[in-house]
Batch of 4 targets.
Target 1
Amino acid sequence: MLTVGIVDDNPLDLDKLELIVGKVATVELRLKANNAEEVYAFIQETPVDLLITDIEMPGMSGYQLADFIHLNNMSTSVIFVTAKSGYAVHAFELNVHDYILKPYNQERLVQSIERFTDKKEAGKITGRLFIRSGGDLVIIPKDEIIFLERTGRTTTIHTTKDIFESYQSLGELEGDIRESMFIRSHRSFLINLQYVKRFTEYSKKSFEVVFEGTSQKALVTKEKLKYLQENYF
């Protein structure tokens, strides 16, 4: 069962959230509030899996609440439901699950909740990747892979513990991984979304990907970033 909290200072919008969330059979609504301060106090004692919140509210904003969750590495994920589009880029820096603009329909929010449920149930990546590196066969646990990069004739695999090089193509290795959290972000990069920390603007057509666990960076196209917004974050 997915535990959820909802917060919005507008009573009608809050009731709409409650009505939609209540129709999702796999959800248990743990918290309904009209201000972020109440949620802030509650989740410190009883974290929820998912928090659905407005952004602009009197006192503490939904953005400040999400920032608190992010800075404290809490297990609660966030969906912003807001009438303001200007926070979208900053929202990605906080690794929010989704950003939904008002007015929205029931299907849009339910699909977002279901995507989060699928991602949560998938859990940790399992299995190992076998690569040819020089004359050796190297076995790498998939959950240690941060990203793969194609440079010239070789593919570099960045992991939490080491860096490996292989003459296998990125396409070949992508076929061997076949995990939902690995995404081809760019023609030269395959990234593990579990290690993504933030996206920063790099050029007119792409963003730079900053990861946990390495100072090395990857690239994501604007088109792919939009896809990630709609389906993963």
Target 2
Amino acid sequence: MMLKILFVCTGNICRSPIAEETFRRAVKARDLQRVIQCDSAATHAYHIGDLPDPRTRKNAESHGLKLTHHCRKLSGEDFSVFDYIVAMDNYNMENIQTISARSTGIHQHEDICFLYRKFDPLAQGKRLEVPDPYYGNSEDFEEVYQIVNRCAESFLDYLVDKHHL
């Protein structure tokens, strides 16, 4: 069994690449890379082929991560390839559902398509969105890193339990 996870944000240059890489690190730390793979994508085609935002890469490097992902757009094929499609915010969740409906004729079920921050143990009572740091400063990029890093561990716990990994 191979689980495939896709992290999605607007441009695939800030939130989803760092979510992908923090999750990949968590998977590797538990030696689960043979059963869990991940990738990231955008709901818009603004930055296709580009590396993540330099500020995202700088923040990742400060935490020992190197981002080499080249931005890509979510495609209809992704809905048959990935077991989970994880949105960073409500705007992207709506876009994911629209793309899914256009390409597959169905809306993705909330068991496989959901907001990543629902796995943030510190988000209780808060909006379940990972904020977009694009127009912010280095502290905003650090906040995103901290959120997705917390989510990575909790989401991985969920997958291990649910799929008996």
Target 3
Amino acid sequence: MPDITTNTGVLTSLASQQGGVDIVLDRITKQYPGQSTPAVEDFSMRIEPGELVMFVGPSGCGKTTTMKMINRIIEPSSGSIRINGDDVLSLDGNELRRHIGYVIQQIGLFPHFTIAENIAVVPKLLGWSKARTAARVEELLNTVQLDPGIFADRYPRQLSGGQQQRVGVARALAADPPVMLMDEPFGATDPITREKLQAEFLRLQADIGKTIIFVTHDFEEAIRMGDRIAVLSERSRIEQFDTPARILANPANEYVRSFIGEGAALKRLALIPVSGATVGSPDSAAPAATIDEETSLREALDLLVLTGAPRINVTRGGAIVGSIDQAAISAALGATAPARRAEGE
């Protein structure tokens, strides 16, 4: 293990980094004393700047352990971790964690702090002025769609679970970190709240472009949110690391297929917008219900089934521009099936 220094130059670089950074894990291993097998063994991965990578796998496979080694909540036994080319194992762990956002399922808000005080924790540790901190708190509350005038002075117990999760995300973003680690952040919420939080976070990520590692046990969540998905088995062995579309179309082995489960084609349809299909002419006999061209083909298929109509009209900006039927949806599914990547690509 390298000698630990503060290395303020690297930390300053991280703090000032706009958008995301690349993360390289090279042969990371975690061996706990008294255990015969490692929790994580010889794990290597490169994550591109601004990429949202999902870790999915069964309980005990080491996905959370792997993620926590990046900000050194857990110290690796061997291997190297580099962020933007800098070795994080040479940094002071406490200082490092102040420059990496971290969101957990249990949220971890301080119950006796107001919402504003919870969000301000890291900026205060970094020595921000009161004015700068207050402005950042207000900005972030607006970003996660919580009115500062209503929520800033409330306490966590006065918020719903979904609202507390939004505050947890805001707190992780407070110091504008280039890296965010998210450990099943929406797992404790009900399905409707979870879907809303996922949509809000994807909207937010489109604007902020952070490099994000997101741990989940929910493959549907991984498909919906990830730029790439790492399907992990025991000791964080990577069974497949690829885009959602490629994994659904070409699972690497039976283990990956077991994660996909039934309905792979329907799951793939959720990744393809209506504009990805060949749209026919507007149909005057189609039902009043329409589908926007940016909506998924899965939703278009649902609408066709619900209405029982042979075709539904497609809109762009509210204006009808064409129509679509089940044959067009099936053709789009076949046309977008990606070829299997070459080994090592």
Target 4
Amino acid sequence: MMAFAMLPEEMNVLTQHFRLTLEPSLDRRISIPSVSLLDRDKGLELMDKVSTVFETSSKVAVVSLFAKRYGFMSILSGLYAMTMFDKSLNYSIENCHLESSYRDQAWLPKVRLIRWDVSRPVEGCREEWRDQVLRTIFAGNIAKVWRALTKIAPISASVLWENAAIYVYWLYENRIEEGASEAQKSRIRDDFQYLINEAPATLFGETSNPFKKFNSDKIMIPTSDVPLRIRKTCCYYYQTSDEEYCPTCPKRKHEVS
């Protein structure tokens, strides 16, 4: 694979919309190298700190809500760059650093990379390159963090994978096509279908493709103006101070409209 660089306008998109950052956060209390999450003691210490942010004493809820934020920051900028720019950054767990960040009082951490090497596919070899990009993001980072989190709290890995899946679906179904060229639209369709239907389990560090089983049909419900995909697992948001179920929570009684 040949080495390239991100254009300034490409980096602007990733940093402004997908929680990638170039600078360390001033808040070092809840900033941590991603690889430190694999250390149970350090992971527990971080969960204790973010429990005050989520205003819950439920360790399961804290882990689930943390996984949502970690998944967003560690997955979406990489997938967006892969599909829209045909470029990849290195999202291996050893190369990522969680940087604490707030917006409108909400804790929305960002990911900072240690090395900023960029690659593009060799002509005629995009599928092989794409596999490597996905393997680095998922098997090389997300799956490792999910396994570590399940040792911190009694939570199913399926919950954590669905937390990631909802953002992948959102990216490809609702966000990524804005202003896309015909070539980019073709990659959007191909990459999305590959991710949720065809990608082998090994790219995710799992025994099966974790996104495929969550790819259910969307339905219309009375509380929404657009069709929604009802979750198969509960993310435990209701155990926070808001004490509310998410609109797509399976614990809700959904009446099809």
